[in-house]
Write a structure and sequence with these properties.
Elements (H helix, E strand, L loop, with lengths): L1 H26 L5 H10 L2 H5 L3 H16 L8 E2 L2 E2 L3 H34 L3 H30 L1 H12 L13 H5 L2 H39 L1
Antiparallel strand pairs: 1-2
């Protein structure tokens, strides 16, 4: 009973660690001006903001720099006027804190995975690979189910996510007057979230397949000896 419980806890910890790492890897390719600019063009951001495309690129590049590299001032200006008001800047600082916390968690997850394999020996590694295989398939399945639900109820999912991670009301902006939602409108988030979800699914399935092959390989090697 105790060994079974330990196995379940170990599998859960390994699965959470793998999930954090997979999601972090899926997000990273989209935190760049090329992708953001592509999606902004598709979302007609120039029409929303009234800025020419070059200005949109400059403003967005500054916002991304402050988000990823810092410092998180978000004080970009156009013709001497701030693009974002103080409430928008404070929200972006909240976004940076959430991002930082998530990636710290993902780094912790990577440490857990590395440590697990560093201390595992023999049959223990086979067990780890099997657990990782199941974790990869679970990550893909959860993403498919959750992603489908989020697509059908995007506004509700978006609201719940923000309610969980941000102060109440701090993320509500008027698209008629406030630049943050003009620079990153709903279409931008729907399509970006969908693409991130697809990458998560692909990485989850790849992890499941590779881990399963490694587990089987260990069994074959042991028989060969």
């Amino acid at each position: 009973m105790i060994s079974t419980l330990r196995g379940l806890v170990a599998g859960l910890v390994l699965g959470v660690a793998a999930g954090l790492v997979v999601v972090a890897l899926a997000i990273l390719p989209f935190l760049n001006p090329v992708w953001v600019g592509f999606e902004q063009t598709r979302s007609s951001v120039t029409s929303w903001t009234g800025y020419p495309e070059q200005t949109v690129r400059w403003v967005t590049g500054s916002v991304l720099h402050d988000l990823v590299i810092g410092p998180p001032d978000f004080a970009v200006t156009v013709d001497g006027a701030p693009v974002l008001n103080e409430r928008e800047r404070e929200h972006m600082r909240d976004v940076r804190r959430v991002f930082s916390s998530f990636f710290v968690g993902a780094a912790g997850g990577l440490v857990v995975l590395v440590a697990a394999f560093a201390f595992a020996r023999g049959a223990g590694r086979k067990v780890l690979w099997r657990r990782l295989s199941r974790a990869g398939l679970a990550i893909a399945a959860v993403t498919v189910i959750g992603g489908a639900a989020a697509l059908f109820f995007f506004d509700a999912a978006f609201g719940i996510f923000h309610e969980l991670f941000f102060p109440a009301g701090s993320f509500l902006f008027d698209p008629r007057t406030e630049r943050l939602v003009q620079l990153f409108p709903e279409q931008f988030w729907v399509e970006s979230a969908t693409c991130v979800g697809v990458v998560v699914i692909v990485l989850g399935l790849a992890l499941g397949h590779i881990a399963d092959r490694r587990a089987r390989g260990i069994g074959i090697l042991r028989l060969g000896r």
